[in-house]
UniProtKB/TrEMBL annotation:
This protein's name: Response regulator
Lineage, top ranks: Bacteria, Bacillati, Bacillota, Bacilli, Bacillales
Post-translational modification 4-aspartylphosphate, affected residues: D58
SMART domains: HTH_ARAC, REC
Keyword set, alphabetical order: DNA-binding, Phosphoprotein, Transcription, Transcription regulation
Gene Ontology MF terms: DNA-binding transcription factor activity; sequence-specific DNA binding
Domain Response regulatory: start-end pairs: 7-123
Residues covered by the HTH araC/xylS-type domain: 418-516
Length: 516
C-alpha cells in the first residue's frame, strides 16, 4: 500500500482552481492525478469509472453540490475518502461533513501543498486500516467456512447448516465448479508454502475474480466468478496456478522442487443440494497424486472412470519379455525402466496398486530365473516399491535396486544431471530454483526433476538441502559468522526456515550447535 500512489480526483466548477491543482507535483506527494470534474454529477460518473482513493471537491457547485456528492460517494463507496474545499460561508457544511465521515476540509484561499500532502497521508493510513479490517473479517469468515467445507467434503453426513453456509458464501457465483488445490509437501515444509500461497491468493482475490477457503493444512478450495462451465473454471485455475508458480519461485527459491501443487475441478453447483457432490468430486484421488505433475489442473470427470490394470493391456506381454531379456543386463534394465515402463505407465495411468503389483511380479519372475537378482535387500526394496507415493518414486526405487550387490564401478551419470549438480555447487548461496537450473541445462523442470531423482537417487531439493546443511555446519564450526549470516551464505534468507531445516538435519538448533 505504501508504494501504491493515491489516486486523486479534483471536483470544482472554477477552471482556474482545477488548473492550479492539476499542475501540482502529485508524484512527490505519493499520489497521482486521476482526473477532474466541474460538478458533482460528472464527478460521480468519474468515480464509477476511475475508482479514485481521494476526492477533493468544492462544496458550492451547480447541478450537484459538494455535500450531495459526498453523501452519494459514502453511500456507494464507503472506503473512498473525501476532502472538502470551502468558502468561509460554507463553514457549517464542512463541519457537518466531518461529523458524517469526511476526511478533512480546507478553505480555498488558504489551501497549501502541505495540506494536500497531509490529506494524502491520511488517506493512505485510512485505506490501510480499512484493508486490515476487511482482511480480518475475511479471515474470520474463511475459518468458519472452512469448518463447514471439511464436514461436507469428508464427513459421512452432510449437515444442512454447513451446506447452507457454503451456498450463502458462494451461491452468488452459481453456477460454479469448485476447484480444489492440493499441496503435496513434507510436513516440515507445508506451513511455509501454505503461508505464501494464502498471501498470494489474498492479494489476487482483491480483483474479485474468485473466492477461496483453506481446508486443513494441505488443500484450498477456489470458486471462480463468471465461470459457468468446466472449461472456464479450468482456465481460471490455470491463471491462478501460473501466478502461484511465478510468485512462489520468487518468494521461496530455497524450497523449489520440494513440493507439488495440483488442482482438480469438481462438479457443477447450480443449487444448494449440488454443493456436497461437487465438493467431494474435487477431492484428489490416489491415482492423481501418483501420476500428477506439479502445477497442473485436471477435471474430476477425467478420473471418474475405472482405472485399468497393466496386466490387461495389450503391451503387457511384450514388456514382460523385454524384462526377462534385460534382467541380467543392468544397463538394458535401466533403459527399460526409464524409456519403457515409466512412459508406458504415465500414458495409460494404470491403477497405482495394480501397477506396483505388476512390477513386483516382474521382479519375482526375473529373480527366479536369475538367482543373483535376489539380493539381501530384495524384500526391503519390495516394501519400498509398494509404498512409493508417485510414479517417479517407483521408478527411482527400481533404479536404485540395480546398485544392490554389485562391485561394478559407478555408472556414468547423464551429462544434464552432471551439469545441474555443477550449477548447484557453484551457485549454492544464490536463489536456486528448479526452473532456473532446468533452463540452464536445456530440459523442462518436470523432466529434470524426474531425471535427477532417477540418476542420483536423491530428489533435486533434497540434494540442494544436503549441500546447504553441510556447508552451514562447516561455517558454524569454522567461522565467526552469526547464524543469520550463515543462512544467507547458504542461500536461505529465511532465518526461521533455516533454523527449522538445520534442526531437522542435525537434531539441534543452529544457535546451540554454534555454542558447541
Amino acid at each position: 500500500m505504501s508504494d501504491t500512489p493515491i489516486r486523486v480526483l479534483i471536483v470544482d466548477d472554477e477552471l482556474p482552481l482545477r488548473q492550479e491543482l492539476r499542475s501540482l507535483p502529485w508524484s512527490s506527494f505519493g499520489a497521482e492525478f486521476a482526473g477532474e470534474a466541474e460538478n458533482g454529477e460528472e464527478a460521480l460518473e468519474l468515480c464509477e469509472k476511475l475508482q479514485p482513493d481521494l476526492v477533493v471537491t468544492d462544496i458550492t457547485m451547480p447541478i450537484m453540490n459538494g455535500m450531495e456528492l459526498f453523501r452519494a460517494i459514502k453511500q456507494k463507496w464507503p472506503f473512498m475518502q473525501v476532502v472538502l474545499l470551502t468558502c468561509h460561508s460554507d463553514f457549517h457544511y464542512a463541519q457537518e461533513a466531518l461529523k458524517l465521515g469526511a476526511l478533512d476540509y480546507f478553505t480555498k484561499l488558504a489551501l497549501e501543498e502541505g495540506d494536500l500532502q497531509a490529506s494524502i497521508d491520511k488517506t493512505r493510513a485510512s485505506l490501510r486500516r480499512e484493508q486490515d479490517l476487511r482482511r480480518y473479517g475475511q479471515e474470520q469468515l474463511r475459518r468458519e467456512l472452512s469448518k463447514g467445507i471439511v464436514t461436507l467434503s469428508h464427513g459421512e453426513a452432510a449437515p444442512l447448516t454447513a451446506q447452507s453456509q457454503v451456498w450463502a458464501a458462494w451461491g452468488g457465483s452459481a453456477p460454479f465448479y469448485p476447484v480444489r488445490l492440493h499441496l503435496d509437501a513434507k510436513e516440515s515444509d507445508r506451513f511455509h508454502v501454505l503461508y505464501e500461497i494464502e498471501r498470494i491468493l489474498a492479494e489476487a482475490e482483491a480483483q474479485p475474480a474468485f473466492h477461496w477457503c483453506p481446508i486443513g493444512d494441505r488443500e484450498i478450495v477456489l470458486v471462480f466468478a463468471d465461470a459457468p462451465d468446466e472449461a472456464a473454471s479450468m482456465a481460471g485455475m490455470q491463471r491462478v496456478m501460473a501466478r502461484l508458480h511465478a510468485e512462489l519461485e520468487q518468494a521461496l527459491p530455497y524450497m523449489s522442487g520440494a513440493y507439488r501443487l495440483m488442482a482438480v475441478v469438481g462438479g457443477r453447483v447450480a443449487a444448494p443440494h449440488d454443493v456436497v457432490p461437487a465438493l467431494r468430486a474435487s477431492a484428489m484421488t490416489p491415482a492423481q497424486l501418483f501420476y500428477g505433475r506439479p502445477w497442473t489442473t485436471a477435471l474430476a470427470s477425467e478420473a471418474a472412470h475405472m482405472l485399468p490394470a497393466p496386466d490387461e493391456h495389450p503391451e503387457a506381454q511384450a514388456l514382460r519379455l523385454r524384462w526377462q531379456e534385460a534382467a541380467a543386463d543392468k544397463d538394458a534394465l535401466r533403459r527399460l525402466y526409464q524409456e519403457g515402463l515409466a512412459p508406458w505407465a504415465a500414458a495409460h495411468r494404470f491403477d497405482p496398486d495394480k501397477l506396483k503389483a505388476f512390477v513386483g511380479g516382474l521382479r519375482e519372475a526375473a529373480s527366479a530365473a536369475h538367482a543373483q537378482l535376489r539380493h539381501a535387500q530384495f524384500d526391503a526394496v519390495t516394501a519400498e516399491l509398494r509404498a512409493a507415493p508417485t510414479l517417479t518414486e517407483l521408478i527411482s526405487a527400481c533404479l536404485r535396486e540395480l546398485e544392490h550387490g554389485t562391485a561394478e564401478p559407478a555408472r556414468r551419470v547423464r551429462k544434464e544431471v552432471q551439469q545441474a549438480r555443477r550449477i548447484i555447487e557453484q551457485k549454492l548461496g544464490e536463489p536456486l530454483t528448479l526452473t532456473s537450473v532446468s533452463e540452464e541445462v536445456g530440459l523442462s523442470s518436470y523432466y529434470l526433476s524426474r531425471l535427477f531423482k532417477e540418476e542420483t537417487g536423491e530428489a533435486f531439493n533434497d540434494y540442494i538441502t544436503r549441500l546447504r546443511m553441510e556447508k552451514a555446519v562447516h561455517l558454524l564450526q569454522t567461522t565467526q559468522l552469526k547464524v543469520y549470516e550463515v543462512a544467507e551464505h547458504v542461500g536461505i534468507p529465511s532465518y526461521r526456515y533455516f533454523s527449522q531445516l538445520f534442526r531437522n538435519w542435525t537434531g539441534v538448533a543452529p544457535t546451540e550447535y554454534k555454542k558447541g
